[in-house]
Amino acid sequence: MKRSYKIGVIVILQVLFLFGMIGVRYYTLASGTPVLLKAAPVDPWDVFRGEYVMLEYDITWIKGEGLDLDSSRQQDVYVVLEKGEKYWQAAGIYLDKPVLAGEQVLVKGDVDYYNELKGEYHVSYGIESYFVEEGTGTGLQQSKVFDAQVKVDRFGSAAIEKIIAP
Hints:
Layout: H1 3-31, E1 33-41, E2 45-46, E3 50-57, E4 61-63, E5 75-83, E6 88-94, E7 104-115, E8 120-124, E9 129-131, H2 137-142, E10 146-152, E11 158-164
Antiparallel strand pairs: 1-3, 1-10, 2-3, 3-9, 4-8, 5-6, 5-7, 7-8, 10-11
């Protein structure tokens, strides 16, 4: 195979990989179940990435006991969400994919810390940062709480659809 063909194949594979990454996010947004979460901003600005908001949700810290986690590394978990009056709340945290009942939704996350004093797991879902229009990050930082409309697909992947400021 000539060198130019090898370079062409490598470029095509890289482009396909990038489109695959984008396609997964679009699939989640197009086919996912809408979930409204209560969110709070953490940090609105980064010199290298521009203006964005780091988010922490009510489902970031989950009470639970009895999970046999390896504390030396992050571990995949499944969090079951149930619809409350306005917001969805965590109903349980599991190492294996549980069976859902009724109007429950399953979201996949990573446990990166366990607070032994409170008996709570810190779970990251991949939806903790949201890029905003220039000049609007400070406004979101000043509002202590706002809503995040998130879509969760059938595989447990989550994607932020929009931020709803008060």
